[in-house]
Inverse folding.
């Protein structure tokens, strides 16, 4: 017999409670990060949307023209600028979101509750992702495009003996973003970063790489300021294989904590 349980998280954003509520609800499809495992049916999703008001539905939309969608939840509380709540339609999780004014903006707190013998099929994920994803959106929403941006069709999977340790190192030394929160468990089944519109997935290495094995795949990442990135990588403990050099492009090559090589190149002004 399983006991009832709850978890919560919070993030402070520099917008007022009314704006924070609007951003959380009306702009959900802009701040919810698209990725291979961030939806129940990622391969056919086109939007994430909520219908306003108590009784409104939280939807994962598959076809706008036919209305084909998965109902993720039903809103039980709808108090603009103050509180939002819904009961999950895919499991037994109840979510409560509060918007409390602070000196600099709003404290957004998310709590997930699961009743005795209840099941969680991802309904509690809002607690984990809201601080990083929603917080990042509020910080840039005044200057960012309000058109939904999808991932590109190229993704990279990298395998490490200690994937959680590697993920934290990559975030610190190379500035990769999108993994919220950074995991501690080395058996975490999925760790994902977003580099522009591409997905970088970190998995556990099955076995070991033979000593002296040749390097055959080196990812290229284009960054806004290659000089600043080079300095950060050095400070983070990366082994510099090739310092910044120029041959049409400007780039450097670094080795991470498990010996993987990465090339970082200066992005063009028009490169997004």
């Amino acid at each position: 017999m399983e006991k009832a349980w709850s978890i919560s998280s919070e993030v402070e954003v520099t917008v007022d409670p009314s704006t924070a509520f609007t951003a959380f609800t009306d702009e959900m499809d802009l701040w919810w990060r698209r990725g291979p495992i961030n939806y129940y049916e990622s391969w056919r999703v086109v939007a994430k949307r909520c219908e306003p008001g108590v009784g409104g539905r939280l939807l994962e939309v598959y076809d706008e023209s036919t209305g084909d969608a998965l109902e993720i939840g039903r809103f039980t509380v709808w108090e603009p600028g103050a509180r939002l709540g819904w009961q999950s339609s895919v499991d037994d999780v109840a979510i409560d979101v509060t918007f409390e004014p602070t000196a600099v903006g709003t404290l957004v707190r998310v709590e997930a509750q699961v009743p005795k013998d209840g099941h969680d099929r991802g309904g509690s994920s809002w607690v984990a992702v809201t601080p990083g994803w929603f917080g990042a959106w509020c910080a840039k929403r005044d200057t960012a495009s309000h058109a939904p941006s999808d991932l590109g069709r190229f993704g990279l999977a990298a395998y490490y003996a200690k994937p959680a340790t590697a993920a934290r190192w990559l975030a610190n030394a190379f500035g990769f973003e999108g993994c919220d929160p950074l995991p501690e468990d080395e058996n975490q089944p999925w760790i994902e970063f977003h580099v522009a519109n591409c997905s970088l997935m970190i998995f556990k290495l099955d076995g070991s790489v033979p000593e002296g094995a040749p390097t055959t795949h080196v990812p290229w990442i284009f960054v806004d300021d290659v000089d600043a990135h080079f300095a950060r990588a050095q400070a983070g403990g990366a082994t510099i294989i090739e310092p910044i050099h120029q041959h049409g492009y400007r780039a450097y090559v670094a080795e991470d904590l498990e010996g993987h090589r990465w090339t970082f190149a200066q992005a063009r002004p028009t490169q997004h």
